[in-house]
Specification:
Blueprint: H1 9-24, E1 49-56, E2 61-69, E3 72-79, H2 88-102, H3 114-130, E4 149-160, H4 164-175, E5 180-183, E6 200-201, H5 206-214, H6 218-225, H7 229-239, H8 246-265, E7 272-274, E8 284-286, H9 293-308, E9 311-313, E10 317-324, E11 327-334, E12 338-349, H10 358-364, H11 382-388, E13 394-395, E14 400-407, E15 412-413, H12 417-420, E16 424-426, H13 440-448, E17 455-459, H14 467-474, E18 478-481, H15 484-491, H16 496-512, E19 534-546, E20 549-551, E21 557-559, E22 565-571, E23 576-577, H17 588-610
Parallel strand pairs: 4-5, 4-12, 5-9, 12-22, 20-23
Antiparallel strand pairs: 1-2, 2-3, 6-8, 7-8, 10-11, 11-12, 13-20, 14-15, 14-19, 16-17, 17-19, 18-19, 21-22
Helix pairs in contact: 1-2, 2-3, 4-9, 4-17, 5-6, 7-8, 8-17, 15-16
Length: 611
C-alpha cells in the first residue's frame, strides 16, 4: 500500500518528529534531525502581518494563524482542541509544518483525518487571502528527495503495527527485558484501537465484585456475579454463531481478568462495569471518566512506551517477512529515508484487519465495495498478505462485521454503550423494529430492511455530561430538543411518524418500569427515556471488524496450512482469526488485543530465549 506523504522531504521529517513528540509525548523515534523550514521568495502582492481564520473541523472549530513577513509565510499556527486524538490531532500538529516548509497549501492531507485536514487548509487559505495571496498560485518549495540508505537494525523482538495489540505486545516484551522495536506504517500510533468507543470485556474481575457489593439493585448484582468465565465463553461462542475456535475463546476468557489487572498496573484502570450488547451480563469494563476506551488506552500506552524507552519507527511500512530455512528471522521495511532490514529473534504481527481495503472486502462480499467503514486507512490486511506469502494459513476470512450505529457522512462510530445506557433505535416511521441490543449482525440486518436502510438512535440527557456523549455533540452528529415532539421534527419525522415516535418512547418507558414486556425481547439496558432534552443521531450499518485473519494457536503462534507453528512468527489482534467466529460481541476486540497481545509477547520472548 502506498503511504500518504507530505510534499517535500524536509517537511515530512520535520512534522513526523514534531507530531509524535507533541501529541503523544513519545520521544523514542528514529528519524533524522528536523531540518530548518525551507525559505521562499517573496510572494507578489503579499501584505506582511498576522492573519486569523476559522473553519469547521471534525470535532468543532479549527483556528489558524498565519504570519507573513518579508512577503513569505513566516509562521503557521493551528488550534483544534476537539479533533480526534491520534487522527485529527495529528493533522493539527503536522500540517502547519508542512505548509511552512513548502510555502504553499499544496501539501498532502493526513490519511485518516480528511475532514480535519480539509478544515485546516480552508482556514489557512482564508488567512492567505486576507494577506492578499492567491493560494492557488503558490507552487511551493520543491526539495530534492534524498536517496534512501540501506540500514540494518538488530533486536530481540520486532512488533509490526502500533495499534492496541502491538503496543500491548511491545510493553509486555520490554517488561521481560527484551530489546523491542515497533514498526508503524502510519505517521501516528493507535490504529483501530483509537476508534474503539466502548470498553473491554472481562469476566471474574475484582471490579465486577466491587460493583456487585456496592449496588442496591438486586438484578444488577445478580447479573454482575453471574458474569463468570464460563458464561463469558458461552456468550462469546453464541455471539459468534459457534464458529469461533473454542480454545482461543477459552484462552481469552480465562486471561481477561488478569489483563484488566495488568492495564491497571501500567496506569490504565477500567473500574466501571456495564452490560455488553448481545448478552445480559456485565462484562464491559470502562474508564472511570466515561471516555472512549480506545483513546484512553492509546494515551496511556504511548506514555508507557516513552517511559520504558521502547523505540517506535513511524511512517515505516513493513513489506516482507524474512524467512530462512523455515524460520522467520526478521522484517524488511521502507521508511522515508531508508530501506530497512530488521533482524529479530521473534516477529509479532499486529497489523490489524482489512476493514479499509475495499478490494479485499469485495472479494468476500461484493456488496461492500462501496460501503462506509469505521476503520482507519491503515487497516488494509498487510500482515495477512505478508504471512500468507511464507505459507501461513487463514481462517474465517469471509466473516465481516457491520456495526449498526455508524454516522454515514464520515464513518464516525456511535458506541454501543448508548444502548447499554437505555438508548433505543427507531426507523423513519417513528417505530422500534428490533431488539436494539441483539448481536451487531442481527441489528445491522434489521436496519437494512427499514425504509431508506437507516435508523435513529435516541437517548435522553441522563449521561449527557460524559465525555463520550459530549463528543457526539462537538462532532456535529446530534439533533436535540426539549420535547419528544420537537425532537421528531428535528429528525425529519412528519404526521403519523411523530405520533408513532412519542408512543414508542412511552411504550419503552413502560417496559423499563416493569409495566410491560418488551415486544422484541430486549432484557438489558432497560433505562427510561424521560429526562429532557432528548437527542437523536441518524445512523446506518458500516464495516467495522473483520473476524477472519491468520490462524493462530493459544500461544499466539502463526500456523501454516498443515497446522504447524511457523517458527519465530507470532500474531495478535484483528490480524488473526478464530477468536470471534461469525460475529464479534462488543467489547471483545479490546479483550482480544490485550490478552493475545500479552500472550504473543510472552511466547515471542520465550522463543527468543531459546535461540
Amino acid at each position: 500500500m502506498k503511504k500518504t506523504k507530505i510534499s517535500g522531504f524536509v517537511s515530512l521529517i520535520l512534522v513526523v518528529a514534531l507530531m509524535f513528540a507533541v501529541v503523544f509525548g513519545v520521544k523514542n523515534i528514529s528519524t533524522p534531525a528536523p531540518a530548518a523550514p525551507a525559505g521562499g521568495a517573496a510572494i507578489e502582492g503579499a501584505v506582511d502581518g498576522t492573519y486569523t481564520a476559522t473553519a469547521k473541523g471534525f470535532g468543532g472549530d479549527i483556528t489558524a494563524d498565519v504570519t507573513i513577513a518579508g512577503g513569505a509565510i513566516a509562521d503557521v499556527q493551528v488550534m483544534g482542541p476537539n479533533e480526534t486524538e491520534g487522527l485529527g490531532s495529528v493533522a493539527v500538529e503536522k500540517l502547519p509544518g508542512a505548509v511552512l516548509a513548502a510555502q504553499s497549501l499544496n501539501v498532502d492531507m493526513i490519511s485518516g483525518a480528511t475532514v480535519s485536514s480539509t478544515a485546516i487548509l480552508a482556514a489557512l487559505d482564508d488567512c492567505l487571502a486576507q494577506a492578499g495571496i492567491d493560494s492557488s498560485k503558490l507552487t511551493g518549495v520543491v526539495s530534492e528527495a534524498a536517496e534512501k540508505t540501506e540500514e540494518t537494525l538488530d533486536v530481540d523482538v520486532v512488533v509490526v503495527g502500533a495499534g492496541g495489540a502491538g503496543m500491548t505486545a511491545a510493553i509486555e516484551a520490554k517488561q521481560d527485558g527484551k530489546n523491542v522495536v515497533i514498526l508503524e506504517k502510519m505517521p501516528y500510533v493507535g490504529g483501530n484501537t483509537t476508534k474503539a468507543s466502548g470498553g473491554m470485556n472481562a469476566a471474574g474481575t475484582k471490579m465486577q465484585q466491587a460493583q456487585a457489593d456496592a449496588t442496591e439493585d438486586e438484578a444488577e448484582r445478580e447479573a454482575l456475579l453471574d458474569s463468570t468465565v464460563e458464561n463469558y465463553i458461552t456468550d462469546t461462542m453464541a455471539g459468534g454463531h459457534d464458529i469461533n475456535d473454542p480454545e482461543l475463546v477459552r484462552t481469552m476468557a480465562e486471561n481477561s481478568s488478569d489483563a484488566v489487572d495488568w492495564l491497571e498496573s501500567i496506569g490504565a484502570p477500567l473500574p466501571v462495569v456495564a452490560p455488553t450488547g448481545g448478552t445480559v451480563h456485565y462484562y464491559l469494563h470502562e474508564p472511570e471518566d466515561g471516555s472512549a476506551v480506545g483513546e484512553f488506552l492509546v494515551q496511556f500506552y504511548t506514555q508507557k512506551l516513552d517511559e520504558m524507552g521502547i523505540e517506535v519507527l513511524l511512517d515505516t511500512e513493513a513489506t516482507e517477512l524474512i524467512s530462512e530455512e523455515g524460520k522467520v528471522t526478521g522484517v524488511k521495511a521502507e521508511s522515508p529515508t531508508a530501506h530497512l532490514t530488521v533482524n529479530a529473534a521473534s516477529v509479532i504481527l499486529a497489523t490489524g484487519g482489512f476493514g479499509a481495503n475495499f478490494d479485499m472486502l469485495a472479494s468476500f462480499d461484493p456488496a461492500l465495495a462501496d460501503a462506509v467503514t469505521t476503520n482507519t486507512p491503515a487497516a488494509t490486511g498487510d500482515g495477512i498478505v505478508m504471512a500468507q506469502e511464507i505459507g501461513a494459513d487463514t481462517v474465517d476470512m469471509e466473516y465481516i462485521q457491520l456495526h449498526p450505529t455508524v454516522f454515514q457522512e464520515n464513518g464516525f462510530l456511535v458506541s454501543e454503550r448508548l444502548r447499554s445506557n437505555g438508548a433505543i433505535l427507531v426507523n423513519s416511521e417513528g417505530n422500534r423494529f428490533t431488539n436494539d441490543l441483539a448481536t451487531r449482525d442481527a441489528v445491522s440486518q434489521a436496519e437494512l430492511k427499514q425504509p431508506g436502510a437507516y435508523a435513529y438512535i435516541v437517548y435522553d440527557s441522563k449521561y449527557a455530561e460524559e465525555k463520550l456523549y459530549q463528543k457526539y455533540v462537538t462532532n456535529g452528529l446530534t439533533v436535540s430538543a426539549d420535547t419528544l415532539e420537537d425532537l421528531a421534527a428535528e429528525m425529519g419525522l412528519e404526521g403519523e411518524a411523530v405520533e408513532n415516535f412519542t408512543a414508542t418512547v412511552e411504550k419503552w418507558n413502560a417496559v423499563c418500569n416493569g409495566e410491560a414486556e418488551d415486544e422484541f425481547g430486549r432484557n438489558n439496558g432497560l433505562v427510561t427515556l424521560d429526562q429532557a432534552p432528548y437527542t437523536a443521531i441518524k445512523i446506518a450499518p458500516g464495516v467495522h471488524h473483520t473476524m477472519g485473519g491468520l490462524k493462530i494457536n493459544t500461544a499466539a503462534e502463526v500456523l501454516d496450512a498443515d497446522g504447524n507453528a511457523i517458527p519465530g512468527l507470532f500474531a495478535a489482534g484483528e490480524v488473526t482469526g478464530g477468536v470471534h467466529g461469525g460475529n464479534r460481541i462488543g467489547g471483545n476486540a479490546v479483550a482480544d488485543i490485550v490478552v493475545f497481545g500479552r500472550i504473543s509477547a510472552q511466547s515471542a520472548c520465550a522463543y527468543a530465549d531459546a535461540q
